[in-house]
Amino acid sequence: MSITLTEKAAEHVKAFIANRGKGVALRLGVKTTGCSGMAYVMEFADTIEDSDEVFESNGVKVIVDKKSLIYLAGTELDYAKEGLNEGFQFNNPNVKDSCGCGESFTV
Amino acid sequence: MALIQISEPGQSTKPHERKLAVGIDLGTTNSLVATVRSGQTTTLANENGEHLLPSVVYYAKDKTRLVGSEAKQYKITDPLNTISSVKRYMGRSLEDIKAKESPLHYDFIQTNSTVPRIKTQAGEVSAIEVSAEILSVLKKRAELSLGDELSGVVITVPAYFDDAQRQATKDAGRLAGLNVLRLINEPTAAAVAYGLDKASDGVIAVYDLGGGTFDISILRVTQGVFEVLATAGDSALGGDDFDYVIASWIQQQLELGDDIDKSLRNQIIHAACQAKQTLTTERLASINIASTTLELSREQLNNLIDPLIKKTLMPCRRALRDAQVELEEIKAVVMVGGSTRILRVRDKVGEYFDQPPMVDINPDTVVAIGAAIQADVLVGNKADSDLLLLDVVPLSLGLETMGNLVEKIIPRNTTIPATRAQDFTTYKDGQTAMSIHVVQGERELVPDCRSLGRFSLKGIPPLVAGSARIRVTFEVDADGLLHVSAREETTGIESGIEVKPSYGLTDSEIEKMLLDSMEHADEDIAARMLHEQQVEADRVLEALAAALDDDGDMLSAEERQSIDEAAGNLAKLKTGNDDRAIKQAMQALDRVAEVFVSRRMDSNIRKAMAGHNVDEFNA
Fold first, then answer.
1. What's the whole-model pTM score?
2. In B492-520, which ranges are continuous DSSP H helix?
């Protein structure tokens, strides 16, 4: 199962990396924390580690460490606007339940 | 579903612990809020997509408040309840305001405190409360845009704002429920937006031509630290004046004369403003007024506005002179304010400073952008290495030593936060307490500096003068708060106070203190030398008196007399102001007392050795 980006998400990632002036990929991951167990990690990546899986979607390189991949496989990353707020949204098929705000989740 | 932003490597935060920070440009005419999202700094818009919030608050009869464009429309119909340009009143007393504004624009009331209030139909309000209304709207906008509560904000203030004006701005932030991380100078924020804090060291100029005011600031950047060298400007010159000269030209062309009704005048000014904007991209603008069409070329515009641009270059010259900087030393010119979009302004400024000015960032938002970058760093979203230090100690901090002398502990222009320690000792035998007087200023003598506070360190063990070790530590935190502590090293006893060094000092007072210190440098050094000799004379006389008390019988009558004479002479000269005479008298006393000193020493050694065998001392 791979990880994909919607066209809109990919455009934003490309723009943010270009604005930052450096970065080879977008790192996605999970860490065990938060009110319902897991939380997403989304960072600029300046290097790719040997332990990373590399995906490419709509022209953006996405890297995920192998441990996180178990929880993220099949995820589609989207970019959404809610009122004045805007940002990235994880459409993750592995999620069973998430806390009220959706920032952390259980699988 | 939560919306997530991209973090810097390793800087991902836990859910609900995201550190959201914004920068706010609290302007005289318009205000703005900006933030860093996924590494990109952007200004935030309201529901209608408008970024600029007019800094206007309308107080309605039913006590509701309108802020921004909604409030602005009441400016003409209900001027006394529509407060605009409130920034001009921040931190100002009624006398200050009266001196600048005549007649007063609002119904001011003197209150018991120094803060005047404005009477509106919804009650009395202070400038701080009006500013807080504006800040509250921006806070709400930011929280809606970022999806959570704000951790902290950075608010910008003009470089020439004094302590009272800065304090008022900080108070307004707090009143609006904001955690004000720091206030930064507007020109500094603009320079940060261009990344000049990370560029090589040097002097930069920030040319800020807004709607109604002009400011020029000369800054020195040293390893990411900005120091304001000089500011100058014209508080009654801005883009509006450009519109007026174009409007006058239109009136002339249409042969309307000066006596026209208000609505036609407003139409003409509006058309003038549009033509001005058109000419930043086009070479020709057409103006339709009273069913006539006029054409204004860029060349014609230039001729009309050149005298105004020239008026901005005079303060530039003044600022450079005040900063004692040569034109060639300026390594960058940053353009701020909507009026710097006018090509002629850019050309003339470039010509004056002999280099193309920096115009890549939207001049309306550049200050807010810089504030947002700073807020993002301060709240901890960047690696520590990116942390900017922006402030310096404006005047030296020190303490009083014997003889009214100032010992500087933290010299002026030291970057903050800063910690400096120095060791002091006791002056008298058996001294058990020490009074520490903290002062601020550049002069050598205490009465010429400003007193910040006093505290005492008690419980020093009684020792011979000069053998106790007291470490005094000065610590200035990022907000400019000074904490002074003293610690006796052998016993570990400690005492300290916290003071706010710049409180109540206006920029002009700071400037005066600096100028005084340069003017009086020679005088000060002479005074310092005199005081040092006087202190030393006191010490010598006191030690002599103690020795005579103990061992006076070792001296013959003649010897005693010559010592007394020399001591009397020194005591007399000590009160005068000839430091050399005091020194000579001290040396004279030293000579006549030599016999006494050596006899005491012999006697002391004899006492110490009495009853002991010589061999014991060889061990």
1. 0.67
2. 507-519
Task: Indicate the residue of A15, A80, A99 with minimum beta-carbon distance to B3.
Answer: A80
Beta strands in B158-304 (DSSP E): 180-185, 202-209, 214-222, 225-234, 284-289, 292-297
Domain interval for residue B571 = 523-609
Considering the domain architecture, whether residues B105 and B229 belong to the same structural domain is answered as: no
Alpha carbon distances (Å) from B63 to B120, B121, B122, B526? 10, 8, 5, 64
Mean pLDDT of chain B: 86
User: Is residue B320 domain-shared with residue B428, that is, in the same domain?
Assistant: no
Residues B227-245: tens digit of each pLDDT: 888 888 888 888 889 999 9
Buried b (16+ CB within 10 A) or exposed e, B64-80: ebbbbeebbebeeebee
List the CATH number of the domain containing B529: 1.20.1270.10
- Do B406 and B347 belong together in one domain? no
Tokens of B134: 């504006």
**B617 located within any domain:** no
Give how many domains chain B has, as a whole number: 4
Pair B256, B225 in one domain:
yes
Q: Is A44 on the interface with B (CB under 8 A)?
A: yes
DSSP state of B80: G
Task: Tell me, yes or no, whether B464 and B319 share the same domain.
Answer: no
Residue A24: give its domain's CATH number. Answer: 2.60.300.12
Residues B472 and B573 reside in one and the same domain = no
Backbone angles phi, psi at B618, to 5 degrees: -85, -15
Contact residues, B window 136-155, toward A, CB-based 8 Å cutoff: 141, 144-147
The predicted pLDDT at position B502 comes to 46
Q: Give the strand pairing for B470-476 and B180-185.
A: unpaired
Within this chain, do residues B347 and B369 fall inside the same structural domain, yes or no? no
Q: What is the DSSP letter of B87?
A: G
Catalytic site positions of B: 25, 87, 186, 208
Angle at B37 between CA B31 and CA B42, to 5 degrees: 35
- Best A84, A99, A106 member to test B by mutation, with max B CBs in 10 Å, is A84
> Are residues B209 and B97 both part of a single domain?
no
Residues B268/B261, Cβ–Cβ less than 8 Å: no
The two counts, helices (H) then strands (E), for chain B are 15, 26
Indicate which of A17, A24, A36, A85 best probes the interface with B, i.e. most B CBs within 10 Å of its own CB.
A85
pLDDT tens per residue, range B320-348: 998 899 999 999 999 999 999 999 999 99
* Complex-level ipTM: 0.86
